[in-house]
Amino acid sequence: MSRKRIDQIMAGFGDGDAISNAAVIIRDALRELGYDSDIYAPPDRVSPSLRGACRPLNGYNPPGDAVSIYHYGIASPATRVFLAAETRKIIIYHNITPPEYFDGFEDSVAEQLRGALTELAEVAGKAKAVWAVSNFNSSELNRMGVGPAHIFELPFSPAPLDFPPDPEIRVRLSAPLKTILFVGRIAPNKRVEDLIQAFAWYHKTIDPHSRVVIIGSNRSCPRYYTMLRMMTGDLDIPNICFEGFASPGGLATYYQLADLYLNTSEHEGYCLPLLEAMYKGLPVVSRSVGGVPEAMGGAGVRYEDLSHREVAELVHLVLSDERLRNEVLEGQRERVRRALSRNIAAELRSLLDASL
């Protein structure tokens, strides 16, 4: 007798992507529970290095007693495949970025996000259950008339961060500069301009021997990236380093070389890089929005309604006050311990029992 199947459907499957990493953790946990389980994504939306880790979406042909889990956050051809499958359905809601952030920068992306909002009720209506990766996302679903949702906090694995250092990056960034790090898509909701302007204050008035390192792909919003580069030129501040996409080994190295992680994002459904930075031993300072408080879990330093200058001063305080820094790091170590102690397989078993 064949084993039951629970597969995951993705709009894309990429290196360094938090949702893709979560899908791998879920797949492995489902296999541990005794299910046959694979990940399916459109081939043109899969990183070349990951093609062996997922299956092409156009080959998705599950048996009728299978379960399909769909990671939902943007309009995609994957939605039609999910809806057409004669399976029991679950969606995991990862948040839909408000389309207004992309208006005037990348109207096609804004349209995809609006499409996801339009289709959400239909997709959720066909599902046996809706899971949300944060209470913030669950509350958002409730406001849109979708739910109730089960909470399945975005899982975290340190495996992508435990690569050996990249020697080229270590040499290139070997100058003894205080290093502030940001990791994430270069997209308007991330408010990277606030990060740059806060760093401008820090560099000009507090520590000229400093740099900010910005890691992330600019493919989702090239015009926004261009605006950031123009603003950087206008500010005439050195040591603003746009490093682009980082391989797993490169990402681990950037975390190792940094002194502090700063997140100025204005909209987040969860924000896994905050946990990554904590795992790598960096004090974390973040704007307190959306799912950020849940990701930080009471650790790190959160702020609201601060000017760029005040953010710079907060960064300086965390970096210069040894007692405060040690207290922050100890709290973060406890947060990481809790994240790593989760039994994902047991959580999934309980959720599947409640959902199906």
What's the gist of this structure?
The chain has 13 helices and 13 strands.
Q: Your description of this structure?
A:
The chain is of the alpha/beta class and 356 residues long. It folds into 2 domains: 150 residues, Glycogen Phosphorylase B (Rossmann fold), CATH 3.40.50.2000; 182 residues, Rossmann fold. The chain has 13 helices and 13 strands. The strands form 2 sheets. It has a 7-stranded parallel sheet with strand order 3-2-1-4-5-6-7, with helices on both faces. Strands 10-9-8-11-12-13 form a 6-stranded parallel sheet, with helices on both faces. Helix 3 links the parallel strand 5 and strand 6. It is globular and about 65 Å long. The two termini are 21 Å apart. 48% of the residues are buried. The mean pLDDT is 95.
Q: Secondary-structure blueprint of this entry?
A:
Elements: E1 6-9, H1 18-32, E2 39-41, E3 55-56, E4 67-72, H2 77-84, E5 88-93, H3 107-126, E6 129-132, H4 135-143, E7 150-151, H5 167-172, E8 178-183, H6 192-205, E9 210-215, H7 222-235, E10 240-244, H8 248-257, E11 260-263, H9 273-279, E12 284-287, H10 292-296, E13 301-303, H11 308-320, H12 322-340, H13 344-355
Parallel strand pairs: 1-2, 1-4, 2-3, 4-5, 5-6, 6-7, 8-9, 8-11, 9-10, 11-12, 12-13
Helix pairs in contact: 1-13, 6-7, 6-11, 11-12
